[in-house]
Amino acid sequence: MDFSVKKLASDAGVFFTRAVQFTEEKLGQAEKTELDAHFENLLSRADSTKNWTEKILRQTEVLLQPNPSARIEEFLYEKLDRKIPSRITNGELLGQYMIDAASEFGPGTPYGSTLIKVGEAQRRLGAADRDFIQSSMINFLTPLRNFLEGDWKTISRERRLLENRRLDLDASKTRLRKAKAAEAKAAATPDFQETRPRNYVLSASASALWSEEVTKAEQELRVAQTEFDRQAEVTRLLLEGISSTHTNHLRCLHEFVEAQATYYAQCYQYTVDLQKLLGRFPGAFVGNTNTQVPSSGVSPSAATIPVVPAVAGPCNPSTSSLTFTEVSPPSSGTRRARVLYDYDAADSSELELLADELITVYSLPGMDSDWLMGEKGNKKGKVPVTYLELLN
What we know:
Elements: H1 2-26, H2 37-64, H3 68-79, H4 90-105, H5 110-188, H6 197-240, H7 242-279, H8 317-320, E1 335-339, E2 358-362, E3 371-376, E4 379-384, E5 388-390
Antiparallel strand pairs: 1-2, 1-5, 2-3, 3-4
């Protein structure tokens, strides 16, 4: 019990001495040991690394999981050291809704069949999103979080210890300086002509006491200087390790970019395949020849493309013997259209399209409602309706 009380009293004395030294430094009443410029640069670099790593980590988490409630839930599971439950992605959920809707509307209907195709594509997009999130969590976010929760905590602890060693060192310097000043004053006080011997004896005794105090303060200063130098070296080695941290984070950043490139390439391929699939799906969009473009509030692309309905009954033998590309365009009914997306022709009867180019389109009897004839330059062929925006 006595030992604990003595230790508590000693710790309280050290804390009080550091507090006094810190206060006097802030008030400009005490000198402060300054670190060298290289050490200060290492400290500044470490602080910048910590601050920007935190910001990058938090914003990447927002990118991967925009829902703040889900992020809080994952954080709680992580702190409780429990496994985070598997969560379906938004794309997978949307795809499942579309497939369920198709089952109710009828998978044999044009709308139902299209819902199934789009729903399957959305599920693939959602699965790609899930893979991207998992890859980014493991290869990018985990190393950043390990640095903040591991290396940086060690650096912060050693920096606090270094600051305490510096306060002890400066307090020792202040104590020695005051002791020397008191010793000099006491040594100058005795008057050998003093008629009262008692005053002279007291003055000489005080000079001896201050001399002993100076010796003790010098010893404490040497100990404090040794501990400060040792702690400064430990802290410096940890701060220089930030370079290795940057190298590790650079590798993780490359892996994040690779995962992101793979994810977007998959998404692009899935959507292009879906576009082509919908462009060849018969009867998915039925043209309405009576539809008029509203005068305002609706863009031209929102209007239904007018097409000529297929002629009922048997085909004219003379017409069926000709291919669509051999039929001359009608004298009236041609329109200008802008291409919305790139389209690769499946065979010689189709026209290859590039996004944003202008072509002339028209309908021919007997053509499927999802296709129009298109011309650009000396080339002509079938083009899918869904890839066009009529301009006039």
